């Protein structure tokens, strides 16, 4: 199990873990993208609770990102009970991760988003966190 930790201002430890069972390339990629956010903004990560599943529709792949108030776990499979599920082709998911045109892709049906109406704060906080952690160009 890989572990990345940082110290938030309230002395708890924020940890990102990769579950070793059935961990594929997508889970490792998500953990790699999350690492700067966990290191730079542990207090923001500590406030997050819920899970986000990514399902790749054009390949047999997926991963789940779980936030447990200070602990981030990346699983190598799609959790059917995730708070939010995003389904899209691999390249579209990659573009969304880099700030792609989410609304256009949702309206075209290329991206399917489930659970966002019931868990809007999780999606908003994750988007904000990833934008803050993105290196300036």
**Mean pLDDT over all positions:** 78
What is the helix content? 25-40%
Question: What proportion strand?
Answer: 25-35%
**Shape annotation:** globular
What would your notes on this structure say?
With about 140 residues, this protein is an alpha/beta fold. The protein contains 5 helices and 7 strands. Strand 3 (about 50-55) and strand 4 (about 60-70) form a beta hairpin.
Brief account:
By secondary structure, the protein is of the alpha/beta class. 36% of the residues lie in helices and 28% in strands. 32% of the residues are buried.
Layout: helices, strands, pairs:
Elements: E1 2-6, E2 14-18, H1 25-40, H2 42-46, E3 49-56, E4 61-68, E5 71-75, E6 84-88, H3 90-97, H4 102-108, E7 112-114, H5 120-133
Parallel strand pairs: 2-5, 3-6
Antiparallel strand pairs: 1-2, 3-4, 4-5, 6-7
Helix pairs in contact: 1-5
Write a concise keyword list for the protein shown above.
137 residues; 7 strands; 5 helices; globular; alpha/beta
